[in-house]
What does this fold into?
Amino acid sequence: MKILDNKVALVTGAGSGIGLAIAKLYAKEGAKVVVSDINEEHGKSAVAEIKSAGGEATFVKADTSNPEQVEALIKATVEAYGRLDIACNNAGIGGEQATTGDYSIDSWKKVLNVNLDGVFYGCKYELNQMEKNGGGVIVNIASIHGTVAAPLSSAYTTSKHAVVGLTKNIGVEYGQKNIRCNAVGPAYIETPLLESASGDMKEALTAKHPMGRLGKSEEVAELVLFLSSEKSSFMTGGYYLVDGGYTAI
Ligand SMILES: NC(=O)c1ccc[n+]([C@@H]2O[C@H](COP(=O)([O-])OP(=O)(O)OC[C@H]3O[C@@H](n4cnc5c(N)ncnc54)[C@H](O)[C@@H]3O)[C@@H](O)[C@H]2O)c1
It folds into this structure.
């Protein structure tokens, strides 16, 4: 018996990095997985990878910053697999690097639109479906920057703090409805999101982690799996770090 047997799970931004690792682990643990991404090629290749490893998955394209597309995504999930038990709202972007006074309004709006509005749209439609199911679990991917600053990325810091707040509200509102909601705060993880960083910048980032290295997507996925499973049955409204000690100093 695997820990997600008979569960239907949805992961946004599952074509790459952390979301891909989560989708693969969910499938390995027995869930039927809806892989969603704005990038069709990456999403389809994630499904192929899951299937070739013996798992069950299907791709649904959606831009999480578009509420109609998110509503359609939840509908497509139920059409494909009959219900929705687990949702991981993972899709997110970094945005431009500038001090707050110079931060462009366009980038501010874009980052908040994907990282915050997109998570709200996901939660809204997932919660409605989970209430129909009689329960469910949501995991929102925040960041260490849900609790500490990311200098030169005020939109990112703001969006991730807000995701932690949204998660708390949902935990409280749905505590007696058999729906749990938690947020995860990874430190810097080796993913394509970090690819644009220069060697010097990566070295400086690495030095901020007491463990002396960046994290791996699979290490984040293990925490997400725990929070998505019955093993965390008394946990809701929480924010859990997977940060190599980053926020301990
Ligand atoms: N990499 C890190 O160091 C790190 C640290 C903490 C938190 N996070 C968070 O983890 C999440 C995943 O990051 P990652 O590093 O795996 O990034 P990534 O760039 O490797 O993957 C993000 C995926 O999301 C998709 N995506 C982007 N915008 C989308 C949209 N509007 N709708 C649907 N899909 C969209 C992309 O196509 C991509 O496949 C993000 O929320 C990010 O903020 C990342």
User: Anything to note?
Assistant: Residues 12-13, 15-19, 37-39, 42, 63-65, 90-93, 114, 118, 141, 143, 186, 188-189, 191-194 surround nicotinamide-adenine-dinucleotide (CB under 6 Å). The chain has seven helices and seven strands.
